[in-house]
Amino acid sequence: MSESAKDIQLLELKDTIAQLNNLIKNQSEIIAGLQKTIDNLRLELSNKQSELDYCKAKLFGASSEKSKTPFPGQLNILGDMEDDRTPELIEAEDIEVTAHKRTRKKKATYEEMFGSLPVRQVKLDNLKPEELICPDCGDKMAAIGTEVVHTEVVFHPATLERVEYIATTYECPSCKLTENPYFIKDNNANPLVPHSYVSASLATYVMYSKFINAMPYHRQEKDFFTQYGIKISRGTMAHWTIFCAQNYFAPVLDYFHRCLSKRKYLCADETPIQVLKEKDRRPQTKSYIWLFRSGDDGLAPIIIYKYHPTRNGDAAADFFKNNPDGSYIMADGYAGYNKLKDFNRCCCYAHIRRYFIEAIPKGHEKDFTNPAVQGMLYCNKLFEYERSYREKGLSYKQIYNRRQRDQKPVVEAFLSWINNAPTTKGTRFDRAITYAKNQSSYMMTYLEDSHCSISNNMSENSIRPVTMGRKNWLFCDTTDGAEASMMVFSLLETARANGINPYKYLEFLLESRPNEKMTDEQLDSLSPWNENVKQICPNNSW
Which CB contacts under 8 angstroms, 24+ apart, belong to 419-425? Predict the structure, then answer.
């Protein structure tokens, strides 16, 4: 019995041990699960902190991505690559480059600032008669010379003028007493907008105020009444803009489009816009403004904005359908541009760099072991080379050769680093790497032709006036208004890009009144790159 009791006790102990082992196993699994949860929560907390730091930087930090001072040792990540900020010129390219010397910019003189203004001189007469008597001899003092002691700029508010066109009626004195008297009246006033009092100058002022100075129609309506005591409704101003765009601006922009369709180097971008009255769409539905412009081809710049109800890439494909095969398009990472068939797509290194900059943890901006900093430095190296080429004034052929020698190895090393960089899902660095991987097939394209840019900054600079104005006028009421607005933007920004006065150019077009019957030769004579137009609308007049 004793042996049997011991056996039973032994079995009970074994069962207890097995139960304890199971309990330990279960508890270990629970602990492992809790530890994993803790790790995930820590990672999430770190990501949230990074997001918070990023939002604070966006709200309160500097908006520029430029480094104020170069990072010491920033090129070390490129291995044994020569640290050469100003590389030697290729031997076959015999060019003399003068040393760049930074000097403090001199303060502008009054003549430099206000030389184009008319001058009115006012003679000072503040001395009392007794002050003009010599205290020694008592004789009256005589004037011996004058000098300018003070200069001020006086502002004269704009004025409005009511102009009435008088028509004279003529009759035949011999026929007036007959049964068939003959009369004729000189009534060919030819108004800018039928049955309207608007002139070319007034329409120009309204459009310029909205699309350059970002002053919405309702504010202009209030300002006209407050400053000038006249009532011009916002609806009337919108009607003027739409009519002029459809009848005078459309033929010019169609010609611009035909000119742009012959270009090989192009840029594009898009930004949202709200249009309240779109057919079969809610007012809150997001529409888009598409920007299409010429690239760095050495020709006159052309900038065209187009309204489109969606962000579908078909808008870009339709706009560029007549461009030559093998053209180069510079755009951001939006996949809609893949619909441009037979185009060579370039990626924007400024966008790639921006993702890496946003992924740098707070306080690690100069930590060269941080992978986000390393990604940024790869991009910085490429931009350093581009800047040195521009400063040296290299030709397109020379830039091509220099890119092959200097930048191609950097891009290859960058691509290898991107493909092998370890990431943690959900982090900003993971997003930066994912974006770069999605663009990797386009990262070498700009090396094929020196006319291709390394970034899409030209497009971003061109679309900025629209985005800044949108903060004030907020939306467009109708699709006609949206299309007309983009026409006006296209003319103003193309004029500005060609170095002429956009205000004068818009007024010049309205006075010229282009129409669809004009030939391309006639329309070219109205283009902002025409030498005669440059004389009519000089930049120094505004």
Answer: 421/371, 421/375, 422/371, 424/43
